[in-house]
Write a structure and sequence with these properties.
The chain is mainly α. It has one domain. The protein contains six helices and no strands.
């Protein structure tokens, strides 16, 4: 991505750590949890790869087309699975954002050529992810309890607040990546 190296490396670490945790969540006994975690792991590792500062390594142009192809396929899958789960609409938005960013990076891998203002799609994606981050942050506030009021005893990979924190961190990372576009 365009921008300074230090924030880029922080994004790489954040996204890679989130992707790694999502891989661990794929061991859950709950099928929907495993499926969702797989998509989120792909998104985390893909975002980590895209966030590597351009000053360190500028991928060849074909790599951006490969990103677009992978996340285009992910978008089609998310669109298909969104029929049964509305959460997959968010995966669709994330995949569309990744395809868009890969396309922009393929078009101008080194730097912007006198661009002024925010393109409409970038602005729309920024608004969506800003809303998603705010909503995700608010959802972290309440403590998950059972009907009796006692905290649930779950494995650390199945804790809903941890998976929500992963989604929040990826949403924040997506915002940061879109801002540097």
């Amino acid at each position: 991505m365009h921008g300074p190296a230090s924030p880029g490396w922080l994004l790489v670490v954040l996204c890679a750590a989130t992707g790694a945790y999502c891989l661990l969540r794929m061991r859950s006994p709950v099928e929907e949890q495993r499926r969702t975690a797989g998509g989120e792991a792909l998104m985390g590792f893909g975002m980590a790869a895209m966030a590597v500062p351009a000053a360190v390594a500028t991928p060849p142009r074909w790599a951006w087309f490969a990103y677009a192809a992978v996340f285009g396929a992910t978008a089609v899958r998310a669109l298909w699975t969104s029929r049964t789960s509305p959460h997959h609409l968010h995966h669709l938005m994330g995949a569309v954002a990744m395809v868009y960013m890969a396309g922009v990076m393929a078009a101008s891998p080194g730097h912007h050529h006198g661009d002024s203002g925010v393109p409409l799609l970038t602005g729309a994606l920024l608004l969506y992810f800003a809303g998603y981050v705010l909503r995700s942050g608010v959802r972290l506030l309440p403590l998950a309890t059972t009907a009796s009021g006692a905290p649930r005893a779950l494995g650390w990979g199945d804790r809903p607040e941890l998976s929500q924190a992963c989604r929040l961190s990826m949403g924040i990372a997506m915002l940061a990546m879109l801002v540097t576009l």
